[in-house]
Amino acid sequence: MTDTHPLPPGSTIGILGGGQLGRMLALAAARLGMKTHIFCPDPQSPAFEVTPHKTVAAYDDEAALAAFADAVDVITYEFENVPAATAAFLATRKPLRPGANALAISQDRLAEKAFLTGANIAVTPYRAVTSLADLEEALVELGTPAVLKTTRMGYDGKGQRLIRERAEAESAFAALAPKPLVLEAFVPFEKEISVVVARNSHGDARAFDPAENVHRDHILHTSTVPASIAEATATEAVWVAEEIVEKLGYVGLLGVEFFVLPSGRLLVNEIAPRVHNSGHWTEAVCVTDQFEQHIRAVLNWPLGDPSRLADVVMENLIGDEVHGVIGQLGPGVAPHLYGKAEARPGRKMGHINRVAVKTTRK
């Protein structure tokens, strides 16, 4: 369903997924006078704590999905692994933003790379892998080291194996099969950056400054803005991100991750059709943060100003790190905790934005 009319304050936004991103979207919507209704199968979802409207049901429960659609004015999601059938079912009942096509492309690494390549956007060299023979042939073409990944459901280092030499091919394939796989060349990148960009139904697009990302144990550790890259590289990254949302006919916020090669050349690593972990810094230093920007886009409101007012470093709090947050508070430190009950290893429990504080004259 398509509609370019802006939704008025007091409208209800349906959010698929009840994690921390859904929670932060609900908080941003409330600031704009909107209601939110969270749909998630997990009764302990942290997003449930910030809105009274919720549905606890499986994503394939069509009766629950229909009732959910009847209760909201527009539907969005906080994670890209919403089942395609769920998205298609809901899209016939209420506007779904971003649309089902963007979701389908970003759910599958092969579809995503084919889309980007077709749009003349550079990506890491890759080959589809459906058998051990495919993998061995792809390793000959791409060389080693290389990274074997599942085409779906991989995140934070899950669903992938580094192959350092061809003798490791069989064990890597056995660990990930029978899922569809893709082999990616190992890129000797200098750093990783990301751009979060929003587009509304009128075709207006606005991007935030590129963030420089550092991962620890395959999980994002810090995002630093401004990124230590050339101005031309930053300009190109923003242009590519805006080109992607334009080619997709996208409505909402999209995260685009890049490898920066020593030459300054950019390769798109992946895209995420949602608010993004590497955009959490916008909460502390932007006129309009990524969560409000996404809400504005799905409501068909004019996009906000993404201008950055200060330098900042966002740091994720993983597992037990959340217990030490009080000792880290001080000037320029803005914490955001997700309200999760259990601090498990590898689990994102919150983040801290460390804002560069201006010194005052004595």
Description:
The structure is a single chain. This protein has about 350 residues and is an alpha+beta fold. It has three domains: about 10-95, 3-Layer(aba) Sandwich (Rossmann fold), CATH 3.40.50; about 125-185, ATP-grasp fold, A domain (Dna Ligase, domain 1); about 190-355, ATP-grasp fold, B domain (D-amino Acid Aminotransferase, Chain A, domain 1, 2-Layer Sandwich), CATH 3.30.470. Helices cover about 25% and strands about 25% of the residues. The protein is built from ten helices and 17 strands. The chain has helices at about 20-30, 60-70, 85-90, 100-105, 110-120, 130-140, 170-175, 230-250, 280-285, 290-300; strands at about 10-15, 35-40, 55, 75, 125-130, 145-150, 160-165, 180-185, 190-200, 205, 210-215, 220-225, 250-260, 265-270, 310-320, 335, 350-355. The strands form three sheets. Strands 9, 10, 11, 12, 13, 14, 15, 16 and 17 form a nine-stranded antiparallel beta sheet that branches. Strands 3-2-1-4 form a four-stranded parallel beta sheet, with helices on both faces. Strands 5-8-6-7 form a four-stranded antiparallel beta sheet, with helices on both faces. Strand 13 and strand 14 (about 265-270) form a beta hairpin. The longest helix is centred in the middle third of the chain and has 18 residues, at about 230-250. The chain is globular and about 60 Å long. The model has no long low-confidence stretch (mean pLDDT about 95).
